[in-house]
Amino acid sequence: MRFFTRRFIRVWQRNGDVFRKFWLPELPGFVAEPVIILLAMGAGLGAYVGFVNGQSYIEFIVPGIISSYAMYSATFECTYGSFIRMEHQRTYDAIITTPLNIEDVIAGEIFWGATRSLMTGAVILLIASIFQLVHSPWAVLVPFVVFLEGLMFASLSMFFTSIVPSIYSFNYYFTLFITPMFFFSGVFFPLTSFPQIVQTLSWLAPLTPVVRLNRALVNGEIEAGLFWSLALVVVLIVIFFAISLFSMRRRLTV
Question: What are the angstrom distances between the C-alpha of 187 and each of 97, 191, 229, 231, 252?
Fold first, then answer.
């Protein structure tokens, strides 16, 4: 494995150019859907739940919706999107015939996945702000956390993409890994509402520290313990970014 160079930005740019041409069909899945869930769960279920931790239910789930759909954006981009570019369109093969190396391609893919997370998270944050569901100036740091989250889940997804035998194998990744995090990482309910064993297992999920960070920023509840959540995200980025570069080079050259 070699380290990627600054030329990775060209892969990122290429994906961005494609996105600008075809962004409209993707809009419902990554913007309209989270807004619908936010309003349906917040206003509908919220009428029965009442207040959670001293705030309305819709205000409680805003950070979780931002975090979870940012996760989905990076994950879809670096699983199905990357696999199609690699195996069906042969985009990777075409790019590595240029001065770019494999690591440049994978780094560009990961940073593009993080960019998709940033776009999704920023749009949901903006809409939540318009509905006056965000009250803390610390919320301006949410896009930064969401970008780091995107790097983390894009790296995790690229690693899985590098080892799957077919596109159908992503069903296992989403069903056994992504979907459980959506429900058990504090998105819709406080972790303290789960049994102790579930609370413990929830902290093994990469989404949990992200939800905690974003909830603290949106609510303005900054504490020293948040450093460990941020550190966990950074450590996972470093580990799986490197593993993805190695594993993808092995897949594309062996």
Answer: 44, 9, 16, 20, 37
pLDDT tens digit string along 44-88? 777 778 788 788 888 999 999 999 999 999 999 999 999 999 999
pLDDT value of position 29: 67
Q: Is residue 242 part of a domain?
A: yes
- Both structure tokens of 251: 């897949």
Q: Is residue 3 part of a domain?
A: no
The larger pLDDT score, comparing residue 210 to residue 24, is at 210
In a domain, 1, yes or no: no
Domain extent, residue 124, equals: 8-253
203 band by pLDDT with thresholds 50, 70 and 90: confident
- Which pLDDT score is estimated for 50? 76
In angstroms, rounded to a whole number, what is the distance separating the alpha carbons of residues 236 and 232? Answer: 6
CA distance 112 to 81: 11
Total count of domains within the chain: 1
- Are the beta carbons of 244 and 110 closer than 8 angstroms? yes
Please give the Cα distance from 234 to 130 (Å, whole number).
31
Please say whether the beta carbons of 115 and 77 come within 8 A: no
- Does residue 2 fall inside a structural domain? no
3-state secondary structure of 56: strand
The amino acid at 5? T
Residue range 86-97, pLDDT digits in tens: 999 999 999 999
- Distance CA(109)–CA(78), nearest Å, equals 7
Rounded to an integer, what distance in angstroms lies between the CA atom of residue 147 and that of residue 71? 10
pLDDT per residue as tens digits for the range 213-241? 999 999 998 998 899 999 999 999 999 99
Helix (H), strand (E) counts: the chain: 13, 2
